[in-house]
Amino acid sequence: FYVKFLGGFFLEFEGKSIKVTKNLKQKSMQILQILIKAGSEGISRNRLIEMLEWKGDHHEKKLNNLRCQTCKLRRFICEAGFPEGSYILNLKGQYYFNLDYKTETDIGKMDKLYKKLRSQPDSENREAWLLEIINLYQGEFLPFLTAEEWAVVENAHYHSIYTWSVTSLCQILRE
Questions:
Q1: Among residues 3, 18, 160, 166, which is most buried (max CB within 10 A)?
Q2: Looking at per-residue confidence, does 44 or 98 come out higher?
Q3: What are the b/e assignments for 24-53, b being 16+ CB within 10 Å?
Q4: Are 31 and 73 in contact (CB under 8 A)?
């Protein structure tokens, strides 16, 4: 899988686009986005519920909401033409997107490059890595979720990496 979060939401499997016909603001679709972003580390049930901001409900109602939205998401995955596999996994209170297929994301690439840049400040690849980050940034993180706190936090994070990269590359080019 390849998933793009910056500038919109785009899913691809082995070079073929997966049509997302659901409203991307729906809680079920947010669960998909959160789980894909969480990657192989997954995310705890409580953190997932907290991110989805089901406020005022009793804990049991929040768990039921999560189960219902997860069922909707599984139905969407079947209808959207995802390849065979188990997708929304709950293992010991930790949720995962998929463990059968490798999933790569634009933000995952960006995070790896940023870590390299910070840990290897004198690398001869610095300019190329900065340019790659700049090219990966195609706009805001999930721009249609600007009202969701978790997405706003992520957007600020990736925008700061982009801004830092542009500033750093400008400094290199000036020198």
A1: 3
A2: 44
A3: eeebbbbbbbbbbbbbeebbebeebbebbe
A4: yes
Residue 56: per-residue pLDDT: 66
**Measuring CA to CA, which residue among 6, 2, 29 is closest to residue 16?**
2
CB hemisphere CA count around 123 (13 angstroms): 15
pTM for this structure?
0.91
The backbone torsions φ and ψ at residue 35, rounded to the nearest 5 degrees and listed phi first, read: -65, -40
Query: HSE of 59 in the Cβ direction (CA atoms, 13 Å)?
Result: 3
Which pLDDT does position 53 carry in this prediction?
82
55-95 confidence digits (pLDDT tens): 766 888 888 999 999 999 999 998 888 888 889 999 998 99
Report the side by side order of strands in the sheet with 43-44.
Answer: 43-44, 94-96, 89-91
Give me the DSSP letters along 68-126.
Answer: HHHHHHHHHHHHHTPPSS--SEEETTEEES-SSS--EEHHHHHHHHHHHHHH-TT-TTH
